[in-house]
Amino acid sequence: MKSDLAQVVVSEDEIKHRIAELGNQLTELYRKKGVEEISAICITNGSIMFAADLLRHFNLHARLDCVRVSSYKDEDRPVTEPEIIDQIRLDLTGQHVLLIDDILDTGRTLDKVTRILRAQKPASLHTCVLLNKKRRKQVKSAPDFVGFTIPDHFVVGYGLDFAERYRNLPCIGVLKPELQNPPNWCAARKDEQPASRR
Ligand code: IMP
Ligand code: MG
Question: What's this model's pTM, rounded to 2 decimal places?
Answer without folding.
Answer: 0.90
